[in-house]
Structure formats: C-alpha cells, structure tokens
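Researcher: Here's my situation. A collaborator sent me these components and asked whether they could plausibly form a single complex. I don't have experimental data yet, so a predicted model of the whole assembly would be a useful starting point for our discussion.
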Amino acid sequence: SYELTQPPSVSVSPGQTARITCSGDALPKQYAYWYQQKPGQAPVLVIYKDSERPSGIPERFSGSSSGTTVTLTISGVQAEDEADYYCQSADSSGTYPYVVFGGGTKLTVL
Amino acid sequence: QVQLQESGPGLVKPSETLSLTCAVSGYSISSGYYWGWIRQPPGKGLEWIGSIYHSGSTYYNPSLKSRVTISVDTSKNQFSLKLSSVTAADTAVYYCARGAMVRGAPGWFDPWGQGTLVTVSS
C-alpha cells in the first residue's frame, strides 16, 4: 500500500524557520495537502495543492514540492504554531483512488 | 459558512456495528464535493475511512472496505458511516469532513467536524 513518510518530530526556537518534509512515490503525480492539529481539536487545512494557502492562514505558512518530497515551511515560528502536522495525498494507481495520510510530525517550539 | 457535526453512540460493544451521522449546514450536499470520514485512535495519526460523492459513488480504504458502508441522505443533508464487527482497535475519534476532487483524485478536506470519540468496549 502507498505510504507517506514524515519525521516524527521537529523542534525550533521562536522566530526561526521550521521545515517539515513528507515523502511518497506518487507525489510527483498527485498534489499534497497539509493540516495543523492542536490538542483536542480537529485538523485545520493550512496548505492545499502543494503550495496554495487557504484564506485566513498566516503568510508564514508555505509549501513546496520537489520530486517525491513535499515540504511545509513555517517562517518566523510562533509559540501558537506548536502542533501536530499531517500531510495528505492520494493514490490513483489502483482500481479507484484513495486517500493517504502521513504519520504526522510534532512541531515543538522551544 | 459550512459546518459539519458528527453524532452517534459514544460506546459500542465488540462485534457490533458502529453507526455515525454527519449533519451538514451552510451547504447542500447535493450541490457537489465529496464527503469523507476520517478517524484518529487515541495518541495516533489520522486514517482515512472512506468517502462518498454527492452522486452516491463511494470509495473506501482497502484495509477497512469489507466492514465499511457510507451513505448519503440528501433530503436531510447528512451522510452516515457504518462500521461492522468492531473491535477495540476501532476505538478512535471519528471526524467527518468535506472533500474536494482535484484532477480526478481525492483532494483536500475542509472543513472538518469537531470529531466524536467512539469507544469499543463491553
């Protein structure tokens, strides 16, 4: 089955730049999406179609793609950005398309 | 704005069927998009369960396909999840969400419901 691989954890100091990667063989052919999830809350979409930012999401959140890896970048990290981040994509190589989530990355703001 | 709200029993016995409903407000299900269920076991990551198109076409996670049924009731503007033969491994927070299709493949989920915890225990 298709998998998306994320690092379990990333730590940065306030004001620094955090980069969270997500790797998967189908990423060159399928878009990636990123969600932020804070404790006890539902996930919130922060990036769609690799690099688009929904309205209401701060400009410090950005996304990029290169080959089989997509990256969520948070510039000028703030304490409120501490959360779990999940990438998501799709596998359409089989009989019908299905959704895949990465294992999640815990961002710690030191 | 679009809002989704899950409802259903918080406790289900092993081997029985888990049933949840997602009520949608602020948008008509029959107007488009697809509608999905995602779950999250305590302390673990997100797992897609399945999705249903407004037309009724369904797509399920291959690992759960034999036990999952998702249906839509456009008259009530809601969609439902049934998961049969549950075990303790099915204990999780269950979320419903609206999904976009992009180039014929599942796209992003937004917005999400607040989630509901379902515990499988006797």
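Model: Some features of this prediction you could bring to your collaborator: The beta strands of chain A are 9-12, 18-23, 33-37, 44-47, 61-66, 69-74, 83-91, 98-101, 105-109. The CA atoms of residues 32 and 61 of chain A lie 14 Å apart.
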